From TrEMBL:
One GO process term, biological-process aspect: JNK cascade
SMART domains xref list: TyrKc
Record bears the keyword Transferase: yes
Keywords: ATP-binding, Kinase, Nucleotide-binding, Serine/threonine-protein kinase, Transferase
Name of the featured protein: Kinase-like domain-containing protein
PANTHER family recorded: MITOGEN-ACTIVATED PROTEIN KINASE KINASE KINASE 7
Species of origin: Glomus cerebriforme
Residue ranges constituting the Protein kinase domain according to the UniProt record: 1-129
The organism's place on the tree of life at top rank: Eukaryota
Lineage: Eukaryota, Fungi, Fungi incertae sedis, Mucoromycota, Glomeromycotina
Entry GO MF terms: ATP binding; MAP kinase kinase kinase activity; protein tyrosine kinase activity
Pfam families according to UniProt: PK_Tyr_Ser-Thr (PF07714)
Amino acid sequence: MSFRSSIKCCIGDLGLSQPASETSFNNEIYGVIPYVAPEIFNGAVFTKASDVYSLGMIMWECTTGCKPFADVEHDHTLIYKILNGKRPEITKDTPECYANLMKRCWELDPTKRPSIHEVGITLSNWDYLYNEYTVQFKQAEKKRPLSPFISKVSSINSTSSLSFNEYISKEYELDINIQSSTIGSSHSGGIYTSRPLSALISTVNESRKHKIEELDIEIQDSGK
């Protein structure tokens, strides 16, 4: 990530791309399983629509303060469940408009996801227009229980006397503390760095093929 002079965060890499040096030499799929769109597991290429799916996962992370699927192993079983519609559980304190946009980004069919332009317009409307959506966000903040870490974030954000570098240092320190506090509830097999996924995807495909063959046999037996 990088910062512009206006203090806006710019996402430079979602960790989904393969090394530039290998782009033309193999068909290996790289990524972080919770952020990879389902169609990629089915052999499709990364597109703007698959990026929107990843954005939906980041939206969930922002509203919960947790990484998606942190409590399970990131293996072929998780890929199989994602392909069958499994998504992170949306918390009750999430504003309805936010949850609806998130679910649209998570659509199994990439053609049903909003474009990034549509997402941008929607977010701008929430930010600049005082309307029913503003009320939803304010109500959500009242419902949301404040952990000591969230309270600490609020105190950091309200300290206007901090220099930019001091602010970033405090945010970094806070992030480390949060990760340390959640380490007990996270699965040791949860991997949030980009890695080759083709072998796991092949395992999923073999498993699905085997299940289809078993189903065909059952249908044939029942017809006798």
